[in-house]
C-alpha cells in the first residue's frame, strides 16, 4: 500500500501543472453546478417564504370607479369571501428638490398601516406614513434620487409644488425595483391622500377566500364583480394569487432550468480534460504498467491505482468548488431576489447543493477516466515492455497529415506547428469540443441578446411614436393635434383613444370567462402605426368592427385570426369584433392589448371627435429631443389650462425593456464564460501533455540550433491554431442552432422574440478565443523553452 501511495503521489506531484489544470477544470464544472443548484433552491425557497409571510390576498380587483368603507365591509360579509381590504392608488407627479423636473410616481394609501390584513407592507426605516409625512418603497430611494429619511420631497398639487416630509421607507411585496419599476411608489395615509390627490375612496379591492384554488378564486371574483356592478362600479382587471406560490415562480423556474443545463454542460466538458489527461498519463506509463504486471500486478489493481489518482483530482476540486460554489450561489440568489424585491436569508451551505456537487464531482470524472484507464491496463506484458517511446503520435500516416503535406511555402516553424497539431487527432478532437461548445453558445447568447433588443426596437418602431402625452380628459382631435404639430421639434402628431375593457369568447359565461383588454384606438389614416404582425393582416381603411389582438391574449382566450371576440365597454354595452390580425406587443398588463379604429370605438362610446392620448413623432430621434418635446408639451398645455396626466418617451421605454431582458442574457454569458474557462484549461492541458510527450523532439531541435523563441512559437502556434479552428467549427453550429435557442428561450420566459443573428458575437468570440488560446499556450510553451538538451535526451 505504501508503494502504491508513493506511485500516486509521485504522478500528481511530479506534474504539478497538469494536476492544477485538471483540478481547476473539474472544479469550475462542479462550482457551476453547485452555484446554480444553490441559487435556484434559495430563490425558490425565499420566494415561497416571502409569499406566505406577506399573507397574500387571493384576489385583487383594479376598479374603474371608487368604493368606500361600507362597500368593502359589505363585500367582506359575502359567503364566498373571508375578509376584504381596500387600497387607494393614484398617479401623481413629484420631484426630490424644488429645481428638479417633475416625474411620475404612484401614491398608495391604506386605511391602517399598523393593522394590515394581507399583502403586508413592511416598515424598513423611519416611521409609518403620518399626517404630515409619507414613506417610499425602499428599493426606489437610490434609483430615483429620493432624499434620506427626514428629508423633503415635493408633490404637484393644483399645479404647484407641495412640500411633504419623507418619514420612512417600506417594503411592498407588490412593488419591484428598477428596471422592472417604471416609477417610484410612495405611501400615505388616506387623509394625506385627500390633501395630495383629492381621493379618499378605494381604487383597488383585495379579498381572501375560504380555500384557494384557481377555480374558487374565479368563482368568488365573479360573485364580487356582479355585486360591484349592481353598485355602479366597474372592474377593470382581476388578478388572482396562489398563497403558497409566488406569482413569478414559473418564470424563475424556467430561467433556473436554462442555467442548470449550462452548468451541467460545463461539468461534462471538464470531464473531457480528465479523459485527455488519463489517456496521456497511461500512454506515457505503458512501460511501467508492463513492469507492474511482470512483478505480479493485476489489471484490476493497476486500474485502481490510476483511478485513485483521479479520485485525488476529484477531492481537490471539491475542496475548491464547494465553498466557492456556495458563495457564488448565495451571491447570485441575493442579486436575483433583490430584483424581485424578495428578502434574502443568511449565508448557508445547502444540503441539496452539497450532495449534488459531491455526487457529480466524484462520479463524472471517475466515469470519464474509466475508459482510458481500462484500455491502458489491458495491454499485454510483451506490448508494454517493448514500448520504449511515448505513444504512436507520428506524423505522416493519416488523411489529415497527407492533406497538410500538400501545403507549401509556409515558414518552417509555422509548418511544424501546423503538422504537430494533428499528431494526436483523438486528443485534438476532445480538446476542440469544449472550445466549440463554448464558442457556439457564446454566439447564440449574443444573438439572443441582439434578437431581444431588435425585437423591442422593431416593436416600438411599429407603433411610430417618440413621445406620448396622456390628457386627464378627452380632448377635441381637430383642435389639439394641430396645436401639437405647431410646437418646435414636432414632426407629426396623432390622437389615439386608450381604454380598458373586458373581453370574452362569444357565448362564454361563468368564472374566468372575462379577460381584461387594453384597447388602443388609432386614426383610420394613421401615419405612425405599422406593427409587426405575427398572423393575419393589418387594419385597412374600410374596416369596421375589426381589431388586431395581442397574440398572448389570443392564445390565452383560445382565439385566432377570423374569430369573433366580444368586448364589454361598460356603460356603452357589449359589442362584437372580428380579429383580423395578431401582433406581439409588450404593452398593457401582461400583454393584453388590442388595436382598432378610433372612430369606430368613438361611435360605440359616444365620444366622436375626442381622444385622450397624443402620439408624437419628433424631428430628431434622440432622447434629448424627445425629452425636450415632452417637457414642452407639459408646459404648453399647462399654460392653456389643460391638464396632462402623464407623459413618456419611446427611448425610455426601449431602454427599460432592454434592461429587463439583458439581466437574463448577462446570466447566460456568465455561464458561457465558465464553459470557456474550462475549454481554455483543456487546451492548456493538451499542450502541456504535448510538451511532456515531445521532450526528445524538443531536445533534438535545440541540439541543431533552434532558439527558445522558435520552440515557444511552435506550441503557441499550435494553441492558436486549435483556438481558431474551434471558432471556424463553432460558427456554422451557431448559425444552425441560434434560431432554435432564441425561440426556445423566448417560450421559457414568454417573450416571442424575432430571430436576428449577430455578427458582432462572431468577431468578439474570435478575439476572445485568440486571447484564451495564447494565454492557455503560454505556460506550456514556457515550459518547453526550459527543457535542456541533456535533460530531454536522457533515458527515463
What can you see in these coordinates?
With 796 residues, the protein is α+β, with helices and mostly antiparallel strands. The protein has four domains: 170 residues, no CATH class; 185 residues, no CATH class; 213 residues, no CATH class; 154 residues, no CATH class. It is 53% helix and 19% strand. The protein is built from 22 helices and 20 strands. It has a six-stranded mixed barrel. Strand 16 and strand 17 form a beta hairpin. The radius of gyration is 34 Å and the shape is elongated.
H/I helix tally = 22
- Radius of gyration equals 34 Å
What are the low-pLDDT stretches, counting only 5+ consecutive residues below 50? 388-393
**Strand segment tally:** 20
Q: Major sheet: order of its strands? A: 2-3-8-5-7-6
- What's the mean pLDDT score? 84
Distance between the termini: 24 Å
What fraction of residues sit in β-strands?
15-25%
Share of helical residues? 40-55%
By secondary-structure content and strand pairing, the structural class works out as: alpha+beta
The outline comes out as: elongated
The overall number of domains is 4
Largest sheet: 6 strands, mixed, barrel
Amino acid at each position: 500500500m505504501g508503494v502504491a501511495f508513493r506511485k500516486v503521489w509521485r504522478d500528481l506531484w511530479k506534474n504539478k501543472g497538469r494536476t492544477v489544470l485538471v483540478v481547476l477544470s473539474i472544479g469550475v464544472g462542479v462550482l457551476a453546478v453547485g452555484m446554480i443548484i444553490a441559487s435556484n433552491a434559495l430563490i425558490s425557497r425565499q420566494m415561497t417564504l416571502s409569499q406566505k409571510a406577506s399573507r397574500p390576498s387571493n384576489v385583487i380587483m383594479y376598479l374603474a370607479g371608487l368604493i368606500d368603507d361600507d362597500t368593502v365591509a359589505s363585500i367582506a360579509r359575502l359567503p364566498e369571501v373571508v375578509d376584504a381590504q381596500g387600497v387607494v392608488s393614484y398617479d401623481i407627479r413629484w420631484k426630490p428638490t424644488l429645481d428638479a423636473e417633475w416625474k411620475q410616481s404612484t401614491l398608495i394609501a391604506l386605511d391602517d398601516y399598523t393593522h394590515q390584513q394581507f399583502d403586508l407592507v413592511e416598515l424598513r426605516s423611519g416611521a409609518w406614513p403620518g399626517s404630515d409625512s409619507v414613506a417610499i418603497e425602499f428599493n426606489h430611494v437610490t434609483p430615483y434620487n429620493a432624499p434620506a429619511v427626514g428629508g423633503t420631497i415635493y408633490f404637484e398639487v393644483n399645479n404647484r409644488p407641495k412640500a411633504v416630509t419623507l418619514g420612512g421607507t417600506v417594503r411592498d411585496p407588490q412593488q419591484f425595483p428598477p428596471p422592472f419599476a417604471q416609477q417610484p411608489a410612495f405611501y400615505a395615509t388616506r387623509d394625506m391622500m385627500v390633501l395630495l390627490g383629492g381621493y379618499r375612496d378605494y381604487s383597488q379591492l383585495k379579498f381572501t377566500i375560504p380555500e384557494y384554488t384557481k377555480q374558487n378564486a374565479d368563482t368568488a371574483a365573479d360573485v364580487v364583480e356582479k355585486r360591484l356592478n349592481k353598485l355602479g362600479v366597474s372592474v377593470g382587471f382581476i388578478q388572482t394569487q396562489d398563497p403558497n406560490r409566488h406569482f413569478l415562480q414559473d418564470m424563475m423556474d424556467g430561467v433556473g432550468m436554462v442555467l442548470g443545463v449550462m452548468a451541467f454542460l460545463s461539468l461534462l466538458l471538464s470531464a473531457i480534460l480528465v479523459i485527455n489527461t488519463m489517456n496521456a498519463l497511461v500512454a506515457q506509463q505503458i512501460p511501467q504498467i508492463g513492469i507492474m504486471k511482470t512483478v505480479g500486478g493485476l489489471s484490476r489493481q493497476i486500474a485502481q491505482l490510476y483511478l485513485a489518482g483521479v479520485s485525488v483530482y476529484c477531492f481537490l476540486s471539491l475542496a475548491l468548488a464547494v465553498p466557492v460554489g456556495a458563495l457564488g450561489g448565495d451571491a447570485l440568489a441575493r442579486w436575483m431576489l433583490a430584483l424581485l424585491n424578495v428578502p434574502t436569508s443568511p449565508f448557508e451551505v445547502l444540503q441539496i447543493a452539497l450532495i449534488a456537487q459531491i455526487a457529480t464531482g466524484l462520479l463524472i470524472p471517475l466515469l470519464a477516466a474509466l475508459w482510458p484507464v481500462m484500455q491502458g491496463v489491458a495491454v499485454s506484458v510483451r506490448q508494454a515492455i517493448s514500448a520504449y517511446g511515448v505513444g504512436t503520435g507520428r506524423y505522416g500516416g493519416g488523411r489529415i497529415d497527407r492533406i497538410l503535406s500538400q501545403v507549401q511555402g509556409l515558414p518552417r516553424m509555422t509548418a511544424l506547428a501546423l503538422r504537430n497539431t494533428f499528431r494526436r487527432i483523438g486528443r485534438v478532437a476532445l480538446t476542440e469540443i469544449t472550445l466549440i461548445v463554448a464558442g457556439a453558445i457564446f454566439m447564440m447568447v449574443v444573438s439572443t441578446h441582439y434578437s431581444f433588443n431588435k425585437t423591442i426596437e422593431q416593436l416600438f418602431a411599429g407603433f411610430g411614436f417618440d413621445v406620448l402625452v396622456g390628457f386627464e380628459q378627452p380632448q377635441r382631435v381637430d383642435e389639439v393635434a394641430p396645436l401639437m404639430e405647431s410646437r418646435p421639434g414636432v414632426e407629426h402628431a396623432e390622437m389615439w383613444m386608450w381604454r380598458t375593457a373586458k373581453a370574452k369568447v362569444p357565448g362564454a359565461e361563468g368564472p374566468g370567462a372575462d379577460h381584461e383588454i387594453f384597447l388602443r384606438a388609432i386614426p383610420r389614416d394613421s401615419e405612425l402605426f405599422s406593427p409587426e404582425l405575427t398572423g393575419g393582416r393589418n387594419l385597412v381603411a374600410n374596416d369596421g368592427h375589426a381589431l388586431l389582438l395581442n397574440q398572448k391574449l389570443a392564445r390565452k382566450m383560445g382565439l385566432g385570426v377570423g374569430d369573433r371576440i366580444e368586448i364589454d365597454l361598460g356603460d356603452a354595452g357589449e359589442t362584437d369584433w372580428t380579429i383580423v390580425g395578431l401582433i406581439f406587443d409588450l404593452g398593457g398588463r401582461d400583454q393584453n392589448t388590442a388595436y382598432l379604429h378610433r372612430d369606430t370605438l368613438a361611435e360605440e362610446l359616444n365620444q366622436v371627435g375626442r381622444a385622450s392620448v397624443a402620439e408624437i413623432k419628433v424631428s430628431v430621434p434622440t432622447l434629448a429631443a424627445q425629452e425636450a418635446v415632452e417637457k414642452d408639451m407639459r408646459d404648453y398645455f399647462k399654460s392653456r389650462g389643460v391638464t396632462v396626466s402623464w407623459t413618456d418617451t419611446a427611448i425610455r421605454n426601449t431602454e427599460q425593456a432592454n434592461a429587463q431582458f439583458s439581466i437574463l442574457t448577462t446570466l447566460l454569458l456568465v455561464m458561457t464564460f465558465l464553459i470557456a474557462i474550462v475549454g481554455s484549461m483543456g487546451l492548456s492541458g493538451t499542450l502541456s501533455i504535448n510538451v511532456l510527450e515531445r521532450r526528445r523532439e524538443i531536445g533534438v531541435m535545440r541540439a541543431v540550433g533552434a532558439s527558445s523563441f522558435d520552440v515557444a512559437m511552435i506550441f503557441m502556434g499550435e494553441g492558436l491554431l486549435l483556438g481558431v479552428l474551434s471558432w471556424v467549427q463553432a460558427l456554422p453550429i451557431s448559425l444552425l442552432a441560434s434560431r432554435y435557442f432564441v425561440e426556445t428561450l423566448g417560450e421559457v420566459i414568454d417573450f416571442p422574440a424575432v430571430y436576428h443573428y449577430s455578427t458582432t458575437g462572431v468577431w468578439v468570440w474570435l478575439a476572445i478565443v485568440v486571447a484564451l488560446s495564447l494565454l492557455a499556450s503560454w505556460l506550456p510553451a514556457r515550459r518547453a523553452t526550459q527543457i535542456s538538451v541533456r535533460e530531454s535526451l536522457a533515458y527515463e
